[in-house]
Design a protein that fits this description.
Layout (H helix, E strand, L loop, with lengths): L5 H5 L8 E9 L4 E10 L6 H5 L7 H19 L7 E5 L8 H4 L1 H10 L6 E6 L7 H13 L3 E7 L6 H6 L4 E4 L1 H4 L6 H17 L2 E4 L5 H10 L3 E2 L8 E2 L7 H11 L2
Length: 259
């Protein structure tokens, strides 16, 4: 009997089209791109809000599934085969009904594109309120069983914060840009992020700082022990393409590495 779920049976088809932009995630330890986050865009490059605002509640499941397939199809054409580069895909926990059944489209797309499962990272945001923590734990467990990496996005900005981290531990947390912004001049932000890094080390969780826009923010976070970075300081998202890391980044990494 084929696994199925409520979303497969009741979700309304999408009545709009979309594509993806890609933004790099930079690893200062290896001085190379670690991965790319796929970000939804309109067919003419319109921002995410222009598309997300079209998604009706009855379409959430189909949209979530379509985003995964579109991201994998594009990444398989853009990524260098065998590079190990991660593809980060945002997903909606509340749009996942039965974890194994809801992965069928993802697995089919990866198989058709010959895209390795261990190169896929699924991000869920702290901003999306999840009523059933047990269900979310089941999703994370199933994704890990299949070889995916899991990440908690916007950490420090949403509903549950440390409570979510106490209930389950993703492979990676992304520090929200509100905590990153101006960290070089904020003792409070420096103390909060230092505490986050300590907890992450104790739980064996990787940490990524997102929304990094200035050299000062980058230098402060790197000195604190952050290894993975994302933001306009490194590159803006590119529509259906992989943007190059800014020319000053490598110089700054080397300068502060040997300082």
């Amino acid at each position: 009997m084929t696994a199925t779920c409520e979303g497969c049976q009741t979700s309304r088809p999408l009545d709009f089209e979309f594509s993806m932009a890609f933004q790099p995630i930079y690893d200062v330890a290896t001085e190379r791109v670690w991965g790319y986050e796929a970000l939804v865009r309109g067919l003419s490059g319109e921002g995410a809000y222009a598309i997300l605002s079209k998604v009706e509640p009855e379409q959430r499941y189909r949209f979530d599934q379509a985003c995964r397939v579109k991201a994998i199809e594009l990444a398989s054409r853009l990524f260098t085969p065998g590079s190990g580069t991660k593809l980060s895909i945002n997903f909606m926990p509340n749009a996942v009904y039965e974890p194994a059944a809801c992965l069928r489209a993802t697995l089919t797309a990866a198989r058709k594109a010959d895209f390795p499962l261990d190169s896929i990272m699924f991000e869920f945001t702290e901003d999306e309120k999840v009523a059933d923590i047990g269900h979310l734990q089941n999703i994370i467990a199933e994704y890990r069983r299949m070889g995916f990496t899991t990440a908690l996005d916007d950490f420090g900005a949403g509903y549950a914060g440390l409570g979510l981290l106490a209930d389950f531990q993703p492979d990676l947390i992304k520090i929200d840009m509100k905590l990153v912004r101006g960290i070089d001049t904020s003792r409070a932000r420096q103390a909060i992020i230092a505490a986050m890094l300590f907890v992450a080390r104790e739980l064996d969780i990787k940490v990524l700082a997102e929304g990094v826009e200035t050299e000062a923010e980058f230098v402060n976070l790197k000195a604190a022990g952050v290894k993975l970075f994302q933001g306009y300081y490194f590159a803006k998202p590119a529509f259906e393409a992989l943007p190059a890391i800014g020319p000053d980044v490598g110089t700054q990494v080397m300068r502060h590495h040997y300082a």
